[in-house]
Write a structure and sequence with these properties.
6-stranded antiparallel sheet, alpha+beta, 25 helices, flat, 5-stranded mixed sheet, binds 2-(butylsulfanyl)adenosine, 21 strands
Length: about 675
């Protein structure tokens, strides 16, 4: 079989398997087999870059190239829906429609997916553009990111789709992926997403499609627009779209009577808890496009549709006590201990009481019956108090004034809702929390868990992170559960931590808001800790994605003498507080011993830039193809003579994208 033929065959099969897996949720081959076929395709494409196709399933991994989004005007403005929480208003909507149309009509009931909306444009069956809602008139072109979502077809099935049409829907991050993402964020010391909606919207706006590809976004499509749609009925058009390969909700139902509509609403109000993605209501749409036109639009929303929103899941239970916990950076969190109550299928015993202002606003008293809600968020929260159920015995809940751990007077910075314990160097949970963060796998990677840190701290071996470097073998052998071997392991990991690169050391310091991504960015501009300590607010915010909050936090941290002393000690023990010269020069030896020939025209970098990249990564760049050439980096319009020579000599031909991924760019 010809290479091109095999490539086409593999591309088709892989897209079909993707469709079966991601849209139909019915995989037909094993993951292993799938990976083998994908690898085969990747290999063939690498060998024949002249057959490069942006719509190949191999391109779903996303390129690593960051691009700011371009704003694009919508073909049709993206309006919103009028909302209601009341069944009476659904009745009114039905009666109003009946009166206006004065003929039979059908209502399509759909789930209201709680993600971020997207508009997809298909031309001749190919996805050409994906745009966010934006302000409804113009949105961001996020095509490169949307291409990585496996349930969105890049090429449509069949051939009875209009030459040009738009389809709208929701991009979602499933609950499971949302939880995993937040766990990762917590480990990284980054702010978690409050709910899957924010996570989906944030992911879609990431500048790096490769990162988007790793987040496992999903989609449901629910609205077609265009001049040549196959049917008058919205429902029928959705069914056609299902045949073209789109993920259309199975829940969607056509109803004729109000009773059927309410049956749908009541069924899904409880059944939605079993769905893998977040929903927040039901959308009712008049089915016929002609009737839709008759009913028309207001400036903000169509008159032919309405959204019925579910009440957030709520329960009422008694407040038993309030705990105030102290975080690593001294934040005090009030947590309510509750009489256990069932909420969204799980037993809830604790809920957030937010902060002092909210406690006062709700006028919470001990023993009160409180309302607990679990909305799109994972942590339940108190949303109010049932004052009528108060028996009058319990005392008012007051925010504490002294730190529950060390007794220091708490502070509440102006303009903030949170309280802090300022005794960072003397408050046990803060000290232990800071050290636990410091030794973490993504920070200094020292062999010591939570229990070990507590043990060291209780025995007075450590009061701060620098003390870890003073621990001797004989100190360890005096402690319970320590032997020769474990002591040696610990000391080896202490030694190894002295080679941990500067950005991770900076992350390990645990400066508020300075997570992994931020510290990586910082060291690119400030190559030494001295540069960073001396940086002004303006210097800091001049860096892309470093905002005022992060800048202030850094300045505050470095203006504290005890922090500077700590850094001086850590530096004395040999920790890396400067970038290595090779990293500054962005030099690697990834391409060591490899000889390249560059040919053709490129879109991401110029030829000279590619030459420089080869050099920086330890490779050799030569002018003409010979038996010594390892790779030909081929752009567009590569000369046929060169191509033939390379093929004859069996030299691997790679595209610029493959080259960039080779050097991890
Ligand atoms: S139809 C003109 N159908 O809800 C009608 N919207 O408040 C356009 N949404 O921006 C929207 N599920 O992001 C429609 N089945 C569904 C929906 C849905 C979720 C979102 C969508 C829209 C918002 C409107």
């Amino acid at each position: 079989m010809e290479i091109k033929e095999r490539i086409d065959q593999l591309r088709k099969s892989i897209e079909e398997w993707n469709y079966q897996y991601y849209v139909l949720a019915k995989p037909s081959i094993s993951d292993y087999e799938f990976d083998q076929k994908l690898k085969e395709l990747e290999k063939l494409e690498a060998e024949s870059p002249e057959y490069f196709d942006l719509n190949s399933p191999t391109q779903r991994v996303g390129s690593d190239i960051n691009k700011n989004f371009i704003q694009v005007e919508h073909m049709y403005p993206m309006l919103s829906l009028s909302n209601t929480y009341s069944e009476d208003e659904i009745k009114e909507f039905y009666n109003r429609t009946q009166k206006a149309l004065n003929e039979d009509f059908e209502i399509v009931c759909e789930l209201k997916y709680d993600g971020t909306s997207i508009s997809l444009i298909y031309e001749n069956g190919i996805l050409v553009r994906a745009i966010t809602r934006g302000d409804g008139t113009r949105g961001d072109d996020v095509t490169a990111n949307v291409r990585t979502i496996k349930s969105i077809p890049l090429k449509l099935h069949g051939d009875n789709y209009p030459a040009l049409f738009e389809i709208r829907g929701e991009i979602l991050l499933p609950w499971k992926a949302f939880q995993q993402l937040n766990e990762e964020k917590a480990k990284n010391d980054e702010q978690p997403f409050a709910n899957p909606r924010n996570a989906a919207a944030g992911t879609l706006k990431l500048l790096n499609p490769k990162m988007v590809a790793q987040r496992r976004l999903d989609s449901y499509l629910y609205y077609l627009l265009g001049n040549n749609l196959p049917f008058d009925g919205h429902y029928e058009n959705l069914e056609a779209a299902r045949m073209w390969g789109f993920k259309i909700s199975d829940a969607t139902k056509k109803c004729k009577t109000l009773e059927e509509v309410f049956e749908f609403i009541h069924y899904w109000d409880s059944e939605r808890k079993n769905l893998p993605v977040a929903t927040d209501g039901i959308v009712l749409k008049i089915n016929s496009a002609k009737q839709q036109l008759n009913l028309g639009w207001t400036a903000k929303s169509p008159r032919w549709a309405i959204a019925y929103k579910f009440q957030a899941e709520s329960a009422e239970t008694r407040l038993l006590s309030v705990e105030f916990s102290v975080g690593r950076i001294g934040t005090i969190t009030p947590v309510a201990n509750l009489e256990p109550v069932l909420l969204s299928g799980t037993v809830v015993k604790r809920a957030s009481l937010h902060n002092e202002d909210i406690i006062n606003k709700f006028d919470v008293h001990y023993g009160d019956m409180c309302y607990v809600e679990k909305g799109g968020e994972i942590i339940p929260k108190i949303t109010g108090v049932n004052i009528e159920a108060r028996t009058g015995i319990g005392e008012k809940v007051r925010f504490i004034e002294l730190c529950p751990a060390c007794g220091t007077k708490l502070i509440r910075p102006e303009g903030e809702a949170a309280h802090y314990c300022p005794n960072h160097s003397g408050c046990p949970p803060q000290i232990k929390g800071m050290i636990e963060h410091f030794v973490g796998r993504r920070a200094m990677n020292i062999n010591a868990g939570e229990e070990t840190i507590s043990q060291f701290y209780e025995h007075g071996l450590i009061h701060n992170t620098a003390d870890l470097y003073e621990i001797k073998k004989e100190d360890l052998l005096k402690l319970d559960r320590w032997g020769e071997k474990s002591a040696e392991n610990f000391l080896e990991s202490i030694e190894a931590s002295k080679t941990v690169p500067f950005d991770r050391v900076l992350f390990a310091l645990g400066i508020r808001f300075a997570g992994e991504t931020v510290t990586k960015k910082l060291v690119k501009t400030f190559h030494t800790i001295e540069d960073l300590i001396n940086a002004s607010y303006d210097d800091l915010v001049a860096i892309n994605e470093i905002g005022g909050v992060i800048a202030k936090s850094l300045i505050q941290y470095f203006s504290d003498e005890s922090n500077k002393e700590l850094i001086a000690r850590l530096k004395k023990y040999g920790l890396q507080f400067a970038l290595a010269d090779e990293i500054i020069a962005e030099k690697t030896d990834i391409l060591k011993g490899k000889t390249f020939v560059i040919s053709g025209v490129f879109s991401e970098h110029s030829r000279d830039e590619y030459k420089e990249l080869i050099d920086k990564n330890g490779g050799k760049n030569t002018g003409s193809i010979s038996a010594k050439t390892d790779y030909v980096l081929a752009g567009e319009n590569m000369g046929p003579a060169k191509l033939e020579k390379a093929q004859k000599l069996g030299i691997t031909i790679i595209s610029e994208y493959e080259f960039l991924s080779m050097i991890g760019s």
